[in-house]
Amino acid sequence: MKTELSRTLGIEHAIFGFTPFPAVAAALTRAGGFGVLGAVRYTAPDDLARDLDWMQEHTDGLPYGLDVVMPAKKVEGVSEADVEAMIPEEHRAFVRATLAKHGVPELAEGEASGWRITGWMEQVARGQLDVAFDYPIKLLANALGSPPPDVVARAHDHGVLVAALAGSARHARHHAEAGIDVVVAQGYEAGGHTGEIASMVLTPEVVEAVSPLPVLAAGGIGSGEQIAAGLALGAQGVWLGSIWLTTTEADLHSRALTAKLLAAGSGDTVRSRALTGKPARQLRTEWTDAWDDPAGPGPLPMPLQGLLVAEAVSRIQKYEVDPLLGTPVGQIVGRMNSERSVQQVVDELTRGFEKAVDRINRIAGRSEA
Ligand SMILES: Cc1cc2nc3c(=O)[nH]c(=O)nc-3n(C[C@H](O)[C@H](O)[C@H](O)COP(=O)(O)O)c2cc1C
User: Which atom of ligand 1 is nearest to the CA of 69?
Assistant: First the structure.
């Protein structure tokens, strides 16, 4: 499975994988794909440096990337405390009431919330970049809009390709104008922040909009047949996020959550602002239902919602409070029915891809039945 982009990066399979877990990213790179480590959860630069050191030691000199979440809109000179102060008491009370309704215990005295995501504040993301450019990353991806021009220039100075996620052809064109090298066309089915256009429609629109820039198809891909479909639509590779969550290398810290993912069907996700303030696909839970209920106060905009719910999400995860327990995940969760290693997933993906190509060749009359 070779494309121009996979040749440029020197990878065996044009399979890119976003993951918050270094062990998954490294395993994908070792399996011949391209692991991309999500940086958004690293508030402390030292923690990111520690995990990038680990990645270096476990990727056999093969290429990998980093993903940051820099919002397109810049907020100058605003600290985390300033942002915290903007959260209305009504919303804090709603969090308390929702947790109390389900009997969610408090964290221990002094216990830090492990889920405190501030990486989507520009100053935090910039701290991550200061660390990242000390490592031989080959690709820097940005989730929310094009990264600022100085970040693109800095990446290019380091010989790093810049990728950006796009949920529409308009976004993709904007990325191309901003000097981005690779556009990830992320369809509605995808886990995490997503737009309203399904991959089947979005991928060819984005390919056409940014040609000749390479496009990666993302959203709803969990089989080799779906990879073949993405490549047939003009993509130069695929970008998968959800599928890795139930691999043996993933570290979800919760058996109950893994069990929920393995049991979930493709209809068990919802695109909700409950977690971050921007629409993100995730498991539908009583937590998302509470935030999506018109009778409640509704979610705050990013980054307020993320700060507001950080501790609550940690408590729900720590105590595995089943009705509220969730995670970003896409509709492909319906196919994630057993725990496998990253290598097994890649083997299955490449086998399925070959099967699909053989089948299409037969249909096209290019090979014997
Ligand atoms: C748990 C989870 C967290 C995610 N967080 C991010 C993120 O921080 N940055 C990002 O660019 N994309 C993020 N995404 C989206 C993925 O990069 C990817 O585009 C998406 O998962 C592809 O669709 P799929 O879930 O159908 O494979 C996340 C996805 C999941 C499942």
Answer: 9
pLDDT digits (tens, 9 = 90+) for 223-276: 999 999 999 999 999 999 999 999 999 999 899 999 999 999 999 999 999 999
CA of 368 relative to ligand 1 center, distance in Å = 39
103/109 Cα distance (integer angstroms): 18
Distance from residue 363's CA to the centre of ligand 1 (Å): 34
Q: Ligand 1: which of 18, 165, 202 to mutate, judged by most atoms within 8 Å of the beta carbon?
A: 18
Q: How far is the CA of 55 from the centre of ligand 1 (A)?
A: 19
> Ligand 1 centroid vs 128 CA: distance in angstroms?
18
Per-residue pLDDT of 102-154, as tens digits, reads 999 998 877 766 555 555 667 788 889 999 999 999 999 998 889 999 999 99
Cβ of 330 below 6 Å from ligand 1: yes
Q: Where are the domains of the chain?
A: 1-70+119-244
Residue 72: per-residue pLDDT: 57
Residues 107 and 318 sit within 8 Å (Cβ to Cβ): yes
Task: Please work out whether the CB of residue 144 comes within 6 Å of at least one atom of ligand 1.
Answer: no
The answer to whether the CB of 286 falls within 8 A of the CB of 69 is no
Which residue has the CA at smallest separation from atom 2 of ligand 1?
328
Task: Please give the CATH superfamily to which domain 1-70+119-244 belongs.
Answer: Aldolase class I (3.20.20.70)
The count of C-alpha atoms lying within 13 angstroms of the C-alpha of 248, restricted to the half-sphere facing its C-beta, is 7
Q: Cα–Cα distance between 341 and 179 in angstroms, integer?
A: 36
Q: Which residues pair with 215 in a beta bridge?
A: 183
Instruction: Count the neighbouring beta carbons within 10 Å of the beta carbon of residue 258.
Output: 17
Mean pLDDT, all residues of the chain:
93
Counting from 1 in the atom list of ligand 1, the atom nearest the Cα of 41 is 8
From the alpha carbon of 18, which atom of ligand 1 is closest? 17
**Residue 368 confidence class, pLDDT cut points 50, 70, 90:** low
Q: Is 73 exposed, middle or buried (0-12, 13-18, 19+ CB in 10 A)?
A: exposed
Coil, helix or strand at residue 200? helix
